[in-house]
Hints:
By secondary structure, chain A is mainly alpha-helical.
Amino acid sequence: MKIGYKLQDKFDLVVFVTVIILLTVGIFSIYSATYNNPAAKGNLNKQIFFIMASLIILFFVYFLPASSFRIVSLPSYIISLLMLIVVLVAGKTIYGAKSWMSIGGFGFQPSEFAKIGLILFPAYWLSDSRRDINNLKELFYTVLIGLIPIMLIMLEPDMGTAIVFGIVSLVMIFWSGLNLFGIFVVLSPMFVLFASLFGTGPFIFALIVVLAMLFYFKQNLFISGTVFVINLSAGFVFDFMLKFLKPHQVKRLLTFIDPGSDPLGSGYNALQAKVAMGSGGLLGKGFLQGNQTQLRFIPEQWTDFIFCVIGEEFGFIGSMFVIVIFLILFLRLLNLTSIAGDKFGRLTIIGILTLLFVHYSINIGMDLGIAPVIGIPLPFISYGGSAILTDMFLIGVVLNIYKNRKHHV
Amino acid sequence: MNENYFGSALRRRLVFFVIAGMFVIQTFQLVNMQLLESTEYEKKSERNSIKTVSVKAPRGIIFDRNIEILVGNKPSFTLQIIPSEYEKKNTKIIENVLNVDSGYIDKLLFRYRKFPEFKPRTLMKGVSYKVIAWLEENQAELPGINYIVETKRDYSFGINASHVFGYTKEVDDKTLKKYKDIYSFGDEVGFSGIEKNYEKYLRGKKGKRFFVVNARQKIVSRYNNGKNDIPPVKGNDLVLSLDYKTQQIAEKLMQHNKGALIALQPETGEILAYVSAPQYDLSHFAGVTSSSVWDSLRNDKDKPLFNRGTISMYPPGSTFKMLIAIAALEEKTIRPGYTFNCKGGMQYGNRFFGCTHYHGVLNLKQAIEESCNAYFYNLVLKIGIDNIDKYSKKFHFGKKTGIDISPEANGLIPSREYYDRAFGKGKWTNGYLLNLGIGQGEIIITPVQLAQYTALLANNGKTKVPHFAKGYIESKTNEFFPFEFNEVNAAVSKKSFKVIHQAMKGVVSSEKGTAHNIELKNISICGKTGTAQNPHGKDHSIFIAYAPSENPQIAVVVIIENAGYGSSYAAPVAQKVILTYLENIESKRINLLNLKRDDVK
Lengths: 409, 601
């Protein structure tokens, strides 16, 4: 065992410093977004409290023994599932989704904490060297592990988080060494589902493409038949899904296509966010000077639309600064996947990277008008205790994996 | 570890491209939005959050010829209602406090339903301090009700002159549509008199106040601490030709009469005093005019709203005799020495046209002095209808004078065509003319026409369009700009005028003159009485005059309805007006073109 005496050797400063910068940006942004809103003034102090608490958690996680994450992976997954079931029964409905739970007057979102279980358990499951992901049965189980929490979250319904979870699961499965046929098996039902949205013609065409692909892969008849049936049924999922989508979510997805069509309806937020961003110009209007922000044109701006506070008050320079910091963090996390000591570590880090990256892309995409308005927070910057605690816990896991990269468990 | 699938390096490269690709897309979009299209978004953002509230400009002050204030401004509270914030449950209590009929608020909201919900509507003007105090106290329970301080007309300066000044009214929809950029709903606009005719000078320019509002259009603060606000520009002050003292006396003299009084400068046409009696109290029109005030004014049998000076038409009576005389002299029908024997009237055909007295033999001067009708019956037959028409036109009867208040009536001077049309060609005789000779019959004139006629007589056929406004004082620079009015001429020889002057002087100064009762020691007044027959009651008493005879400074017309002889009622009024003006004329003379700031109060 070799112990480095330099700090960077035990502690990844790149990840830690970028995260601290983003947290700081977040504090200033929330300060500005709530400055002229007496009702939300307390949110800044709460956020600072959560950041302090999450830093303690981060260092606690960092100092845990390397093996602890494997040990907690299954229990954390099961606890996550239980919480997601409990919230469906006893949760509080906020903005049309039953996603909040309250214990002793303290509200939190189980779907946020479920991220931990959803990343750690599949990583543990997939890193088992006896498992062959390219075995269709194994693949089916793996997909199921990802799909159960996703279904539960869709029942809330919180489409945004469900989409994020789905992408995280897919990328982790992909990363674990899925071959081309495996990728085809996972992705083809989505392709068929997407095609079915455009009518019967495209749906049949998609099925023909799937059939052609099955002939190309030359798998045995049973496997090919199973895959085809899965694809066929995928075509009818959309109608089934519509039952889960609330009208406001359907509307949100539709106004993504043309936010200008309904400027005072659900496209309003997206439009006002764009106006806030665009009017920032090169240098921005100055801290606390953004009229869009200060006049509360965008409701609840300290949560999902926090990035346009930066865009409006610090302009292009400020926006670029934030996305460059995120870029550095993401590239460093990608780099760490090859530095990590084992497959579990690599899969965990890629899961965390995917989670943060999808959140980031959709969130900022909303402000820039290139992503649908689905309410998911910007990591480290948006207000929200559950998200901060979870994200910082996961960063603690990354730092722990980095610290233990030379150990082989 | 089995890495024999898909290639781990490839996987990493793929993820790298996704991350880098997202960064490039976002950067591209940021450049687009924040650098290339930022001005467009900025405009949207400004429009989003800045609300412009226009601030009404105080109207210009109205001064008399010596810069004495006649009409000013005073602060006034205006209640406003904002439908988007207003709570209907308060309607009853507000209507109670304002002391208006129930349904008043609903009606108002309905009337302005097409305007944006968050725009304030005028609920009531000229609200008392008490109501404002009540509002201040209960502001929290009365969302959507607020007040602004505006100015309203102040008529407390001792002059009423209701028909001269006129009043303002809330702008109507038609005007609003026509002058979109000048008026917005709830604005006051001159509706009659000077306020209407000189609206564009008096109204001023509205200011703008910028407020920062939130997404619900609620005002958050002043924009840029009010540094960008555009203050309202007060209307230009108007300088009238009215003479404060003369006007005051005229109003007092006419206050228990019905009729009209117009005094003007013969040379300039500047009106020194103008009364249409009865007047109405302008202070009722300063704020909101209640419907009860309107009704009582409309139903008053004396018709106070009626501007007698320009719309009422009276027979000129004997004041018309000078025109007949001039026509006869000019057409050389007679010489001034021509005499006629009045036998208490004149027989024409089978009808006897009576005179007031048995005058005996008179020449022209005497005939005017003593107002002999018979002399003029004879004269009018000599000159004929066409000359009456011709000389009436020379003195601008039968058409609007163009005085700077409206409306104005034309009056009527019968002509050959008129009689042909009225009675049929050849079916009327010269007998119809006899009455015209003494200003009776079909002939009707307005007081302002009579005033213009008097000015022409006084100034040898030269005057200007009778008018009230001398000019305006530009509110920013305090510079005076005079208005120009057209000349009005009556092409008549000086010789003829001289005869008339002598005769009119005699009316007052001669022992037998019909207005000898008003003779003054130090001022020689030229005048002519008139008594206009009136089918509806007692005769109207008319008197026209000018003074001093050698250099006329003032011409006066007084018509008192249903009073009787001109000499006993109208003449003394005219005399006092003349006296007042001439006594004060020398003491005050302000050269308006060298007007200094201090002179303007």
